[in-house]
Sequence to fold (430 residues):
Amino acid sequence: MISRYTLPKMGKIWEEENRFAKMLVVEIAACEAMHKKGLIPSKDLETIKKKAGFDINRINEIEKKTHHDVIAFIENIGERVGKSARFLHMGLTSSDVLDTALSMQMVEAADILLADLKALAAALAKKARQYKYTVMMGRSHGVHAEPITFGLKIALFYDDTVRSIKRLEAAKAAVAIGKISGSVGTYANIDPGTETYVCKKLGLSPAKISNQIIQRDGIAEFLTTVAIIGSGLEKIATEIRHLQRTEVQEAEEPFYKGQKGSSSMPHKRNPIICERVCGMARILRGNSLAAMENITLWHERDISHSSVERVILPDSTILLDYMLNKMSSVIEGLAVYPENMKKNLALTRGLVYSQRLLLELVKKGLERKQAYEIVQSSTLEAFKSRIDFKKALDKNAGLKKYMSTKEINGCFDEKYHTKHVDKIFKTVGL
Fold:
């Protein structure tokens, strides 16, 4: 089991305490910017910075009357600050504070998810190297195709994860945007320099243009990226689920001491974590659709997006944090059965080497159609009669006209299919 589990930390990002703390930071930074422009006396700024604070219970009490959380928030701060509070929220609109604070929360969430992804990438890299040359059956359509290695399968998941890291870094930049431009984005009641100051102090980029809000395509990009990452985890989980099937049994997720697989069947060892990841990925995709629905709002802004974001942002980031940590645990503790891989490789009695024979015939000058038909006739006989492919080929007079027994036997070499493993690993950075 891994020790870097971060769900409690991720959850705290979305708690009211952190939300209001971020809003307070925005308000104070705006006051600092206006002080630099001579709009707020030094004594009042000092009082604001010294006394400004909030009490969630009191905010909730005030909001019962105001039915407006930001007004309740400002009034609660004012109760602590006194007369100097008249400079708070000067020229700002609620969304200046809410959206800028929300951006800070999303950046914090992205940082946790990036750490999770890097941990998963490390686990995948280690497992890929461990089984770099472990030959197994490659499958297409669920049917045996040609040999690969288990290391290659895991290396592909590693490369997926590296791309997910890059996507999330880009999505983090897309939401690291602040906005202090007033009621409809015209800076009519606040100097644009205030926005520049606040954003720089908070590690955000100023919105190039806004109306009453920061535009929601950035959040849609963020949550779509989260959904893509979740779908990538589902891809890994689905593969493990298939490999864990009794008829395959080439790999299985960890089964811990004291764990039970079924209330009625003591023998069961089910891929429950991987199944859970697959189910949660569906939620992430649904939430990403809701985020895209939020892009379109009435005129300079309506409030239909706000209620949605208060659900989908915490839910999606907390879920993905959980999924990433669980998948890292699965990969680290993955049980791998090379002997079963070897056994499954032999199930078709050599049929998986048919393409090699086809290509050798083409090299000898046969048209591809003719070569294909010669080899396929033996594959059909081997499949129907359930005999070794080599035996079927030995009866193939058409093949024997062009290839000796030694040449035919030389096509049944699994190393032929793994000769470029090192190059592939180097290409993906392993």
